[in-house]
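Q: Hi! First time doing this. I have a protein sequence and I read that you can turn it into a structure. Is that right? Here it is:
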Amino acid sequence: MYSDLKYWYLHEHKLFKNLSFAEIDALCILKKFKKSKKNEIIDLPYNDNERIYFLKQGTIKLVRINDDGSELLIDILQKGDLFGDLSLEKSEQSNEFFKVVSDEAILCTFFRKNLEEVMYKKPDFALNYIKFIGFNFKKIQNSYKNILFKDAKTRLILLLDMILEKEQVQQNSYVLPNYLTQLDIAQLICTTRQTIISLFKELEHEGILSYTQKEIAIPDIKLFKKVAQDVK
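A: Yes, that's right. Below is the predicted 3D structure, encoded as structure tokens:
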């Protein structure tokens, strides 16, 4: 029963939906589930058998250590995201690490070489993988475009819209757990913490959301979606 439940999570992910149970098992995913608690650093050791990680539950952030020792938030990853050596090329050690920001994160992991073997035997899966990587590359391109050509308020709205998309919100209203500090959000959209404080106050005044350090409440999802669509 427990194994079936873990299979279900993987089959719900669009990248794995066309694989059989045997093919998923060949990735060794079921043998490598790991639970991590809030603020735990996720160690991604470099070795010849490089791993790819699938975030089954929770939220983690990718952090880079600058030359002066300060932390810079690069990205936020949510349930269903893959990370690690996605390019299928050998990587080198870096000054980047992943940190759990939700109460708990559940990861499963598999070797890159196992993924390559499944791709060789299953061309349709290989195509899905290429599309998945392409989609994420496009998302990164759009993020840079937003930073270059859109104002800070627009960038904040689009960031929140992206997070809501990942949460697959269907309700008329939604309370989003706030795993990010004001500085985290500022770094993600390349602005200052003081600007983020002012923008949240402005959006609250407009009735678009309500912000606290623990949560971001959006009372009218349709209204928020319309605002996000208008600024894209």
